[in-house]
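User: tokens in, sequence out, please.
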């Protein structure tokens, strides 16, 4: 999450002071991501240092010190909004790593590991769904956040189901031979090429 750019977006509406920015940030994001006021002021100091915001008054003006976005800040914000995040490389997902490790740990039932995490994710989906039923109709920000989280959790559950099925089929087919060193090296070398090809299509 880019607090830096979120603050620029709020300042694009007009001058604001630090505490006001924190309150508006939390309100706009459905109060899902609490923001420490100290983090707000630290970020504002960096934005001011980089010439993206300007402040009114003396450096020690206190919490009522007002900040406004500069022309450079507007350009930075526009570029950030229109530039897709770099998704060409898979994130280092703890759940994915956990399943990959569980496959090789002696005495661990990887299917039980998968199902325990699946149950937890289903419970989370139910909690988010209840929140949506209670509040999303009254708050557009909450509705958007809840929708995003439900889609994310659903995709993780689908991956767990797919992984469970793939592992069961692999077990039925018998142990796979260990890859030869040359084959493993070739597979590793193919990853950067794949990333470059994905990037070229963007």
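Assistant: Sequence out:
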């Amino acid at each position: 999450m880019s607090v830096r750019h979120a603050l620029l977006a709020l300042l694009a509406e007009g001058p604001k002071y630090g505490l006001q920015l924190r309150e508006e940030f939390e309100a706009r994001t459905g109060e899902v991501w609490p923001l420490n006021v100290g983090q707000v002021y630290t970020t504002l100091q960096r934005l001011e240092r980089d010439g993206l915001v300007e402040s009114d008054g003396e450096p020690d003006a206190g919490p009522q010190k007002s900040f406004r976005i500069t022309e450079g800040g507007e350009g930075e914000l526009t570029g950030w909004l229109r530039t897709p995040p770099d998704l060409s490389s898979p994130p280092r997902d703890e759940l994915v790593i956990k399943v990959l490790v569980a496959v090789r740990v002696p005495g661990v039932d990887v299917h039980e590991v998968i199902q325990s995490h699946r149950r937890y994710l289903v419970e989370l989906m139910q909690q988010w769904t209840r929140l949506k039923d209670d509040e999303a109709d009254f708050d557009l920000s909450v509705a958007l956040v809840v929708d995003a989280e439900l889609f994310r959790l659903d995709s993780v559950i689908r991956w767990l189901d797919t992984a469970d099925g793939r592992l069961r089929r692999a077990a039925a087919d018998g142990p796979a031979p260990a890859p030869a060193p040359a084959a493993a090296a070739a597979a590793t070398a193919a990853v950067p090429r794949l990333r470059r090809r994905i990037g070229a299509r963007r």
